[in-house]
DUF4381 domain-containing protein (uncultured Sulfurovum sp), 131 residues
Amino acid sequence: MENELRDIKPLLEIPDSSYYIFLGLVALGIMLLVALLWFLVKKFWKKRKINMQKVYFEQFKNLDWNNVKASAYEATELGRKLTLENERAKEIYSQLVPMLVAYKYRKKVPALDEETLKQYNLLVHIIDESI
């Protein structure tokens, strides 16, 4: 054994980080997938959500003016909810409310006059444009 080869060196360990790179890419892919799912669910949830402004507007537009007293109360309440953001609608609503007072706090109310109905229809038209 004296003739043993001394010029061959033992195997060297090569650092291998491919396992950690693979785990990092998998984690990144999972995070991107979760973010994409979150975005899609949020987008569809907003579309599914009921717009209360539209519901209030449909009720406001379809008021039955045969029962003037109840309709005056409804118009006052729904008009207040619908005109919170629109300045022009708020101004017309503030003109309509004193007209509706004549039909509210009485036992017997007269039929709806033409001027109040015109003001109501104008408010409906302006709110319809803003929604």
Q: What stands out?
A: The radius of gyration is 36 Å. The first helix runs from residue 18 to 48.
